[in-house]
Amino acid sequence: MKSTASKISLIKFIPGIAWFFVVLIMICLPKKDLPEVEGWLAYIYLDKWIHIGMFGILAFLFMYPFHIKEVVPRTKNDYFLTVFILTVCWGLVTECIQLYIPGRSFDLLDWAADGSGAFLALFWCKKRYLFKG
Q1: Is residue 19 scored above 60 in pLDDT?
Q2: Among 2, 27, 61, 120, which is least packed by CB within 10 angstroms?
Q3: Is residue 7 part of a domain?
């Protein structure tokens, strides 16, 4: 009997790996290279929405390949939770990296937004791939 890991082609993870590096590049940009958020965009906390989107996409791209039908729901759930936790940890690491980027800093609210994006991906994948009606 084949293991679950052997049922999933590494190729299916390429979008997630690519997006991981996009996120890394984006968080390493100095503040002077980022557009200034002013007016109503600042009022709606655009930067937090960007964090939610970046990390939500990241988590989803690593959860999506695991929606294989032959995998038991418990295994899918465990995998989704693992990706969620790793994405939240990566969000913390990115905030720590930003301590060393000119004009950037550690922001606990950014980390909360990162975790919120990961949670939304978890919620979506569980609803879509575990609890299909």
Answers
A1: yes
A2: 2
A3: no
